[in-house]
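Q: What would this chain look like folded?
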Amino acid sequence: MVDSGATLIARLREAVGPAHVLTVPDEMSPYLVDWRGRYRGRARCVVRPSATHEVAAVVKLCAESGAPIVPQGGNTGMCGGATPDTEGNEIVVSLGRMARVRAIDLANATITVEAGVPLATVQEAAARAGMYFPLSLASEGSANSLSTAASGTVCADCARTTRATT
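A: My prediction, written as structure tokens:
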């Protein structure tokens, strides 16, 4: 069943809080264009969850209503994959509020971060723990761990790569 929009937006507001479902064009505009200005789109709304249970609720609501989702991390990609199309039916799910470093496990050489943690923050947290996170990008101050697939860390003692949880 395809939702006309108003009911879905109301249900999304219940799931993540009214302040985190953007529908005003000026508030949505930064999420509708890539950082280079090459790709521009439209969206029904922008949803900004702050936890995995909120992401799950958003995905479930969108699936039930037939609304396509465009996940967005730091919006620093080079190919427009985080930009909605021009139809205006998609829901942008911005993961920027999910920006916590959850855990650092020195024994297993892993770091657990949420999807919206900027790459630079992951690198700094690893360095404070005496570890090295080996990925470096020009956009690391805004590139998120999910959007850059920055899921790995290197143990400072043994230089073996391990996977991080995003």
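The radius of gyration is 17 Å.
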